[in-house]
Amino acid sequence: AQSVTQLGSHVSVSEGALVLLRCNYSSSVPPYLFWYVQYPNQGLQLLLKYTSAATLVKGINGFEAEFKKSETSFHLTKPSAHMSDAAEYFCAVTPNTGGFKTIFGAGTRLFVKA
Amino acid sequence: DADVTQTPRNRITKTGKRIMLECSQTKGHDRMYWYRQDPGLGLQLIYYSFDVKDINKGEISDGYSVSRQAQAKFSLSLESAIPNQTALYFCATSDYTRDEQFFGPGTRLTVL
Predict the structure, then answer these.
(1) Cβ burial, residue B51 (10 Å; 0-12/13-18/19+)
(2) Chain A residues touching residue B90 (CB < 8 angstroms)
(3) Coil, strand, or helix at residue A41?
(4) Are B33 and B108 in contact (CB under 8 A)?
(5) Exposed, middle or buried: residue B4 (CB in 10 Å: 0-12, 13-18, 19+)?
(6) Cβ of A101 and B4 within 8 Å?
(7) Most exposed residue of A99, B1, B3, B33, measured as fewest CB within 10 angstroms of its CB?
């Protein structure tokens, strides 16, 4: 069965520092992969998605993620954190074959220190 | 106006009460979903619908029911609310099954 693991329920960085949020999935066939962001009192919104077109995916607000099949990973990065990046981030996977249900990771809350 | 709206945004109720959460969308999507969010657990799928006549249980459907009144409307009901149904509930839509989902702002439900 598909699963997705986000390493670290909380990540704290200083403003201007690199942001790295980790996501690993389990699947025999590379799935569709997504990163969503949830700001306080809001629903989730899409940051970026991988659909097999390119391994390095660029998203909104300066975020990007790299799909690494050998590591079954899809880590999210941003070179320089901004205070407005403080939010909860969810990695999600949807199977490419067979089932279609999207599985969400448990989420990583990002704190940005001034 | 928001593409996916949910009402109410907040609700406090008592054990045993029947509650309905409503979701409307203007995206024109056929696919609609109800999720529950609990801290540290991510989102869990309660029910999903691929069109008005197609409704399916998700991974945690016990204690919940749904109604797809129209392409744009998908309601979630708790027939007899219990305290462990206290959570944040999200409605979402998508154009294709494996495409990105568009989320409503959520309903925070507290069952006392």
Answers:
(1) exposed
(2) 43-44
(3) coil
(4) no
(5) buried
(6) no
(7) B1
